[in-house]
Amino acid sequence: MYVEYRLDSVKQIANMSSEEVVSREVEYLLAETKYVCSLDEKSLAKAKKELNENPRERQAAVDQLREWILQQPHFKCCTDTRFLLMFLRRSAFSQLEARALIENYVAVICTKLAFWGKDIDTHSKSLKSALEVGVLIPLPIPDDEGRRIILNTPGCIKSGKGYTNFDILKATYAIMTYLVQFDEATQVNGIVVIDDQTNVTPKVMTYIGLDNLVKVLSFFMNKYPIRMKGWHFYNAAVVAQTIISALKPFLPQKIQDRMFLYGNNMEDVYKHIPMRLLPREYLPDEYTGPCQGSLSAIQASYKKALNSKAVRDKIWNITSSGMTYDETKKPGDVGPQASFRKLNID
């Protein structure tokens, strides 16, 4: 007997304030009770059709993956049901694909990208300063397909403001951990990124480090357990072109096909993302219809959540001693094979 639980539909969420949406997410993130599915009917149908998810087999698949992880001597990671579902869904519930994905994830985060995803403490002074910048802001209301819209504004980064370039990168990881790893609707429906390149200068890119950025984004687009459904570059000038040129060799064709470049005319963006799904700051003065609210209010809600002790502890436990990798302890025998399902995750 399996149990299903439904969170609010997209239409219901659209009537909530950003603070109400974030409060609901925090409550779900910190829930210590037995797992119950939070997908609405539409998302559940998509999970079945596109990700091979069978509600009656879901928990057994999670238990099987968890058991395998606990048997591995060379790496350790979070084994919460929602965390493991992120990898199973990204792998269309193939145990072999999920194992490879999660092992690679832990290995890369613990070694090559430790500057991005390891030892994240949202209570540290420098990371608090980085979160104040608001480089990455998840908008509370998803689109009609249930996809979460994320606004990226690297032009607001400035040196000498109490944070380092790595603090900025860790802040983005903290947001993605909070938003993606424990939000089932986002796991299933994916994300759409609006990359606002306003005020992004060569100086900003030098500060972040183009090499660091390419490493993070190439991993994110290829091996991070997320469904990237759209990447919209607004005000894409020379710096954006440089980033894209550096990234393209590492991006699968399907991601390249989902990239859109615009000038400084928001009318072009509105053709792809309706005004009602944008923050007030990105709308014309004469617009009086519904919107996501103000960026300051949205950012304040997420900042408050990430600064709470409970959320801080959750993220810290996942990214510190709760995630380790030691290549020297990896066994030579990979063990018995598990079921494999053809991927269909576009």
Automatic annotation (TrEMBL):
GO (cellular component) term, any one: membrane
Transmembrane regions listed in the UniProt entry: none
InterPro entries reported for this sequence: CRAL-TRIO_dom, CRAL-TRIO_dom_sf, CRAL/TRIO_N_dom_sf
Entry-linked Pfam families: CRAL_TRIO
GO molecular function: phosphatidylinositol bisphosphate binding
Source taxon at top rank: Eukaryota
Name of this protein: Uncharacterized protein
Organism, scientific name: Owenia fusiformis
